[in-house]
Amino acid sequence: MIFDWENEEERLKRFISISPKKKLEWLHQMHSFILKSSSKRGMVRRAKLRQMR
C-alpha cells in the first residue's frame, strides 16, 4: 500500500523493518500465484526474458 503522505525514505524504512523470512515467504506466494494464473504464452515470454539476462 502506498501512502501519499509518506516520502520515499520513510517507505524504504518501513520495508526494511520486515524480516527477511517474511519477505521470502511473500515472494514465494507471489511466484506460485503467478505460475497458477498465467497462460502458457506468458510463461514462454518470461522464460525468454530470463534467458536474455
- Strand elements, count: 0
The helicity comes to over 70%
- The number of helical segments is 3
Task: Indicate the radius of gyration in whole angstroms.
Answer: 16 Å
Instruction: State which percent range the strand residues make up.
Output: under 5%
Q: Determine the oligomeric state from the structure.
A: single chain
> Main beta sheet, described?
none
Overall, the morphology is elongated
The topology string of helices and strands comes to: HHH
| N→C terminal distance | 30 Å
- Uncertain segments: none
Report the structural category. mainly alpha
Mean of all residue-level pLDDT scores: 87
Ordered list of secondary-structure elements with their pairings:
Blueprint: H1 8-16, H2 20-37, H3 40-52
What does this structure look like?
There is one protein chain. The chain is an all-alpha fold. Helix content is 75%, strand content 0%. The protein is elongated, with a radius of gyration of 16 Å. The model has no long low-confidence stretch (mean pLDDT 87).
Question: Which features characterize this protein?
Answer:
mainly alpha, 53 residues
Summary of the model, kept short:
With 53 residues, the protein is mostly helical. It is 75% helix and 0% strand. The longest helix is centred in the middle third of the chain and has 18 residues, at 20-37.
